[in-house]
Amino acid sequence: MESHSPVADPGHVVKSSPVMIDGVALNGPTLDVSAAEGFIQQSMAIIMEDAVRKATNVREKVCEWRSPEQLKELLDLELKDGGEAQSKILQRCRDAIRYSVKTSRNQNSKFIQYIRVRDKGKTAIHSFSKLYTYEVAPVFTLMEEAVLKKMMEFLGWEEGGDGIFNPGGSVSNMYAMNVARFHHCPDIKELGLSAVPRLVMFTSQECHYSISKAAAFLGIGTKNVYVVPSDKRGKMIPAALEEQIKKAKNEGAEPFMVNATAGTTVLGAFDPIEEIADICEKYNLWLHVDACWGGAALLSKKHRHLLKGIHRANSVAWNPHKMLMACLQCCAFMVRDKTGLLQRCHSARASYLFQQDKFYDVSYDTGDKSIQCSRKPDAFKFWLMWKALGTSELERRVDRAFAMARYLAQEIKKREGFRLLMEPEYANVCFWYIPPSLRNMPEITLMYPSSLQVGPAVKERMMKKGSMMVSYQPHGDKVNFFRMIIISPQASREDMDFVLDEIDRLGQDL
Predict the structure, then answer these.
(1) What is the dihedral of CA 500, 502, 504, 510, to 10 degrees?
(2) Distance between CA atoms of 456 and 274, rounded to whole angstroms?
(3) C-alpha dihedral, 46 to 49 to 53 to 57, nearest 10°
(4) Helices and strands, number each (H, E), in the chain
(5) Which residues are recorded with the post-translational modification N6-(pyridoxal phosphate)lysine (predicted)?
(6) Does residue 124 register a pLDDT over 70?
(7) Contact between residue 385 and residue 321 where contact means Cβ atoms under 8 Å apart
(8) What pLDDT does 172 receive?
(9) Residue 225 backbone phi and psi in degrees, to 5
(10) Model pLDDT, residue 338
(11) In angstroms, what CA-CA distances link 350 with 166, 369, 467?
(12) Which of 62, 211, 299, 489 is most buried when burial is the number of CB atoms within 10 A of its CB?
């Protein structure tokens, strides 16, 4: 979905005059690349020494056991407003390795608990990277808990909730559908689809395709996903939602869930969550918010109003690997329920993993909440990044992405041959490029086949030249247009200028 930064080019002229949008400076990158390279080199040295050499030494201990409460104090898990020095972040890497379980091959005479023995060498870096019980992943279990707690604070869930990290937002949306269905019909877990009536759910025409995929996978059926019309900006129309609910009930179906989208994939639209929540309460429906893309706006005081009402959602999907740029994959699924609904829905009570008579608090054995067994410790990536940057810097990054999108939109409106699809609400900037041969044609020209081929032709040329990558697509009755997604803190207004200049260069003779 993201557009890749341009490479160096003789035509890419760096301009020095400062540009400010909403108080945000847009000139030049914001990251110190040399400092980042130094950090990577030092962290790799720590990994080689502590995670490879020491962890594969049979004379070393398999673990340095600490109870959950003791380990919380040692690790200082709280995510704060300010970032930490590089030296402190490197120490946190050492601590994460030190208090994790060592499962490498040379330890197999000591670590024989599960099928988790690792081969030395290339896989040793991941030698303690599986999450299902506290005893196997003490550090990452607590880090996941801390990150989810902080994210729930931004959702406005004052009493907290529950959640896990998943391998992708599509999986998070599937979890939402499964949990919502289980909440509506608990018998389905044991008796299956034969025990329930025809269940239907509702989502906007702009929703992510994972919603229909999840309905197919879970046996709900894609025809039982009622598509609610959206307005011209791509937002679900609440009145149309209520009409669809009434229609489904009149047909004898049983509604159980509404999916609202916070940041649609193409247009970056935010459904009116507050109004949708009112309807869900009226009809006793589970409200899930797919905020995989738009959730990051919650960190911005300027822009969190886009998700007004999200505190009323029953579940939320939010991907820090998108706008916040945590390393792939990093996807959280959260439920406002605190009664153990997530675990009841998915648990199988495997007796070889989730014994109830362990010597520590087994509520930290989170694996039975998941449809998987072991999971990657994805929360660690976000936790370490948050520790390094702090909440304030994350907020600045979000604000800068919004400002950069506004700058690009302004430039598009100034330039001959470019036309904005609509004013961006988020970091999605959609626009047409009209080559000189079509500029004096009537407005209807944008509907002609020749106009339809502009996007693919320019995309082919930029790919073969290797200068940049920008996505395009048609949408509804709109012919192919370019879609820029602006998130990287390294992107500058000079990069935005280059993108428009390069598209114009590549399309001049079309």
Answers:
(1) -140
(2) 39
(3) -100
(4) 14, 13
(5) 322
(6) no
(7) no
(8) 96
(9) -100, 105
(10) 95
(11) 20, 12, 53
(12) 211
Asked whether 135 and 141 are in contact (CB, 8 A), the reply is: no
> Which residues are within 8 A (CB) of 145 and not within 5 positions of it... i.e. 6 or more apart?
77, 364
Taking the CA of residue 260 as centre, how many other CA atoms within 13 Å lie in the half-sphere pointing to its CB?
35
Cβ contact 345:178 at 8 Å: yes
| Dihedral angle of Cα 295, 299, 302, 305, to the nearest 10 degrees | 40
CB 489 within 8 A of CB 31: yes
Is 60 exceeded by the pLDDT of residue 373? Answer: yes
Which tokens is 97 given? 């390795």
CB 111, CB 102: distance < 8 Å: yes
Q: Which residue has the tokens 């056991």?
A: 65
Q: What is the reported pTM?
A: 0.90
- How far apart, in Å, do the first and last CA atoms of the chain sit? 26
Weakest mean pLDDT among 112-116, 213-217, 340-344, 441-445: 112-116
Q: Which residue has better confidence, 191 or 56?
A: 191
Closest by Cα among 304, 335, 311 to 148: 335
Task: Take residue 382 and report the two structure tokens written for it.
Answer: 């976000």
Q: 114: which 2 tokens?
A: 């599960």
Lookup result for tokens 């050492």:
94
